[in-house]
Amino acid sequence: MQAIKVGLLGIGTVGSGTFNVLRRNQAEIRGRAGRGIEIAMVADLDVARAKSIVGDACEVVSDARQVIANPEIDIVIELIGGYGVAKTLVLEAIAAGKHVVTANKALLAVHGTEIFAAAHAKGVIVAFEAAVAGGIPIIKALREGLTANRIEWIAGIINGTTNFILSEMRGKGLDFATVLKEAQRLGYAEADPTFDIEGVDAAHKATIMSAIAFGIPVQFDKAHVEGITQLQAADIKYAEQLGYRIKLLGLTRRRENGIELRVHPTLIPANRLIANVEGAMNAVVVQGDAVGTTLYYGKGAGSEPTASAVIADLVDITRLHTADPEHRVPHLAFRPDAISDTPILPMDQVLTSFYLRLRVADEAGVLSRITTILADNDISIDAVLQRESAEGEKQTDLIILTHETVEGRMNKALALMQALPTVLAPIVRLRKEELA
User: Which residues are marked as active site?
Assistant: First the structure.
């Protein structure tokens, strides 16, 4: 059978990895797909660099629309990134009847509803395994492997840059700014690392997983997003003393009144497997009612790990290329007419536990006043750690762990505590998840 023809838009890190892995493992891929998969055209603004990668193996052009217009191209791989031209090209490829493979989590998290609707109307596939957690097949697990389950929650370390930074801060006792510079030197962080360190990248991925898990539209604009830029080495140290590690966690959970969708630094018990994911690695924990807890671990970025996911999508599309569109796996696991309008909960309705660090005057009655405020707001204390003040100091750190409470209730309590004259600095508030 003739090889299926693929057009590649963008041949940077992931694009070159896709080209190389596809060529290297062609025999295995053909055996699994039932026919060959051939990159027939590449579009890249830097034509000379693209030609240096592909040689004479395929045609190289500077205009992506030439790829889309080619009637021989069956699948278009979009690896340009961003929200702008990538969206236009993806929609044009769909309109031209091409299947699309993309690693663009930002595009899908923001415009996925429009893109999936267009693909459904045209009867083509938009595949995006590479958009979340690189080489970890978490999309396929959620959409197919766990299809018998009612998913309860998903928690993921889904940004390698921030996980590397937090691992270094914990292991070496360094502050955020110092470790960020080291991450940039090693190539783990971009020159402009904003999307990573502010939690935006992780929120894009959490948004996509939430939609698949709970059968809701992609709604990035309703996600709560916090990064790690304000995290201090002292809190990592205190968390460790209390038996926890701090990770930037993407978390989505089903509640009776809606869906939680949030990204923020989170204390996790040190004995949980996900708490021990170090360096630039990714991991996702999924809780299903039938299967229980499952863990997915691996490289969340990089040329060939991400290429692995791109090629897996190519193989899936090749297998289903001639199938009735109504019999394919839906983009978001649920059929379009079964997508629900379950709301994303605002943050003040989220139920979670808390870590509080208060710099307080070292005098009698301080702890009593603080615990009274918490009790008056129906917030139960789980543990307290008070650092002994150094000789001559008249202030100390007070660390409090709470049981679960509604965030809005904690916000009221924090305002009252911050107003106490014996609280000498802004209160540090972090969320805590047991993931039991």
Answer: 205
